[in-house]
Design goal:
alpha/beta, Rossmann fold, three-stranded parallel sheet, 11 strands, 16% strand, globular
Length: 279
């Protein structure tokens, strides 16, 4: 059996067309403020790519760069101004932040209604309480990819590998909200293979290349590879793609899978935030 490829680029393209029309119909265009505190080249490349997509969609972007030795008070001061500005629909912290920067203080300073990455404590709490909120972009994209397969998530056994606050945990919460039975695995999990082999839906977001081999996957499972690691200039996922294709029913490639959905979900969140701003 050969797995069906979940092409994030194609699915994103269709979603963006709908979003583009929604943005055209808005009285004021959405405006995104991004805060960058790292000089990492991959971050710069992502920001450039994000800005290009936003421009094509009719979204205004404002990028604020801080040197790595910046004092946190300077960044907090900017966040306060962005919170108060009626021209800004959403605020995005580009990760990773500078090594000496207190991430929690910055995240908590963002107004929840402008938190387009869905990472403030209030939005996180609402997600777990099944309340309306802005949802972390990658996790939101993962759920849309799973739903694109047409499978009924309710009652399925889902295994999420990775417990980060921006991918692993929110992905698990979204699947739980869809009535899946969810297991979260992490670096301390004993016998990972035993856990993943039971998954009808397997989401890997560990950031460890080739962590998931073909013999760790249940026959017919939906496999979502959300791992992204640069190895010798090449972007690698967590899943050994060729092996997984022989077992899974659906699988996402890296690149071209989950990553393609993240920016689209960011824009969707931005549209939602913009509508809230205008109410």
């Amino acid at each position: 059996m050969k797995a069906n490829i979940l092409d994030g680029k194609v699915i994103s393209r269709d979603l963006r067309e709908k979003l583009k029309q929604t943005i055209k119909d808005l009285e004021t265009p959405p405006s995104l403020a991004a805060i960058i505190t790292s000089d990492d080249e991959s971050i710069k490349a992502y920001v450039k790519s994000k800005d290009k997509v936003c421009s094509e969609m009719g979204v205004l972007t404002h990028n604020y760069y801080f040197p790595k030795d910046s004092k946190i008070e300077e960044i907090l001061n900017l966040i306060g101004k962005l919170n108060d500005s009626p021209k800004i629909s959403g605020i995005l912290l580009e990760f990773p932040l500078g090594e000496e920067i207190d991430k929690d203080r910055l995240v908590s300073a963002i107004l929840p209604e402008k938190d387009v990455d869905g990472i403030t404590p209030l939005n996180a709490g609402k997600l777990y309480a099944r309340k309306s909120c802005l949802i972390p972009c990658t996790a939101k994209g993962i759920l849309k990819l799973i739903k694109h397969t047409g499978i009924n998530i309710s009652g399925k056994h889902a295994v999420v590998v990775g417990r980060s606050n921006i991918v692993g945990k929110p992905s698990a919460a979204l699947l739980l909200n869809e009535n899946a039975t969810v297991t979260i695995c992490h670096s301390k999990t004993e016998n990972l293979k035993e856990e993943t082999k039971r998954a009808d839906i397997l989401v890997s977001a560990a950031g460890r290349p080739n962590l998931i081999t073909g013999d760790m996957i249940k026959k017919g499972a939906v496999v979502i590879d959300a791992g992204t690691t640069m190895v010798k200039g090449k972007l690698m996922g967590d899943v050994v793609f060729e092996e997984a294709c022989e077992v899974a029913s659906y699988i996402t490639p890296v690149p071209g899978g989950v990553g393609s959905m993240t920016t689209t979900m960011l824009i969707e969140n931005l549209v939602e935030a913009n509508i809230l701003k205008c109410l």
